[in-house]
Amino acid sequence: MRAIQKYVEFIKDEVEGAKEYAEMYVEAKAKGNVSTASRYKEMTLDELKHASWIHERAVKEIEKISQTYTPPPEMMEKWELEHKEYVEQAALVRQMLEL
After folding, report:
1. Cα–Cα distance for residue pair 17/21, rounded to 1 Å
2. Of 4, 38, 55, 59, whose CA is between 20 and 30 Å from 86?
3. Which of 9, 14, 10, 3 is nearest to 61 (CA)?
């Protein structure tokens, strides 16, 4: 369960970084600085890729654990909440990039 918690922390860090870069993207774009905005957009997308990869690892780890024993309901509930938050936050960041 500690491994899953670490993955959750890593995902949150990556998504938070993506949000920060997305905000910088929006600001640079609003100021008309196209090249800077483009770079921030790339950085945002990189962070989202990292989060996605870590999320995939977490899912695989949960599947592997589930083959050995049934994870406690609390763990699965926590994962479901974290998964939902990840999906929502990543979607919010992607929306920011569409501005």
Report:
1. 6
2. 38
3. 3
